[in-house]
Amino acid sequence: MKQNFPLQSSFLGRVPYAGALARMNHLRDERLADRIPDQLLFLEHPPVITMGRRKSHEDLKIDPEELKRKGIEFVETDRGGRLTYHGPGQLVVYFIVDIRARKMPVDRLVWTAEEGIKQCLAKYGILADRDERNPGIWVGNSKIASVGLHVHRGVTTHGIAVNVNCDLGPFSYMTPCGIAGAGVVSLAALSGNEYSVDEVARSLRRYYDKLL
Fold first, then answer.
1. Partner of 72 for a Cys bridge, out of 6, 47, 60, 196, CB 3.0 to 4.6 A?
2. Model confidence at 52, in pLDDT bands (50, 70, 90)?
3. Do the Cβ atoms of 57 and 51 come closer than 8 Å?
4. Is 66 in a helix, a strand, or coil?
C-alpha cells in the first residue's frame, strides 16, 4: 500500500558510471542525515559492465583488455547480483530510499521496483513477469530488466535497468546475472518501435509515484 512518503525525481541524461555512483552515494549520505526526501535518479550510462557483490569473473567471456578496446568499462560495485551491462538506450533508475522510515523490507522494495516495470511495459503492449528463481523482469526466457540493490543503515542505493532500445550485443560478452541459457531482449525489439529512454523514464516515474 502506498504510504505517501515524499519522493523526489531527477532526470540526468547520460552520465558516466563513476559520476553517477558518486552522486548516488552523496544522496544516500544526505538521506541518512534526513536532509532530503527519498530520491529516484533516472539516467543512462556509457557502455559499462558492472559486477555486484557476488564475485563472478568467470562469467566474463572476454578479457577485460578486450572490453577496453571495445570501449566498455568494467567496474566492481557493492550492489547485489553478478554481472550486468549498462549502455546507451538502457534506462537505469537508482533508488535512494529509507526503507526503515517506510517500514518496508528490502524484498518489498524489490517487488515494487519490478512491479513498476511490469505495469509500465504493459502500457507499451509488452506482457512481462517475474521469474521466481531469478530476480528481474522477463518476457519468456529473455530478461528485459534487471534489479540489484544495496542497503546501508536502512537506505538503499543502486536499483534497476530496463532495456529500452539499447544494443544487446555486449550482453554476449558475459553470462548476464550468471544465468546460462537465458536471453536478453529490449522494448524496441519486442515492439518494433524506437521509444526514447526519456519517454519511458517519465512513464515509469508515474507508476512509481503510485506504488511508492
1. 47
2. confident
3. yes
4. helix
Please indicate, yes or no, if residue 84 is contained in any of the structural domains. yes
d(CA 97, CA 193): 33
Instruction: Give the whole-angstrom CA distance, residue 142 versus residue 145.
Output: 9
In a domain, 188, yes or no: yes
Q: 70: which strand partners?
A: none
pLDDT (mean) for 73-85? 83
Active site residue 177: yes
**Residue closest to 128 by CA, chosen among 83, 185, 57:** 185
* Count of domains for the chain: 1
Hey, is 126 helix, strand or coil?
A: coil
CA 101 to chain centre: 23
* Sign of the dihedral through C-alpha 93, 115, 197, 164: positive
Q: Model confidence over 10-28: pLDDT tens digits?
A: 999 999 999 999 999 999 9
Residue numbers of the domain that contains 167: 7-211
Q: What angle do CA 48, 52, 57 make, to 5 degrees?
A: 75
Spot the catalytic one: 139, 177, 185, 200. 177
Q: What value does the mean pLDDT of the chain take?
A: 91
C-alpha cell read off for 121: 511495459
Domain CATH number, residue 167? 3.30.930.10
- pLDDT, one tens digit per residue, over 88-126 is 999 999 999 999 999 999 999 999 999 999 999 999 999
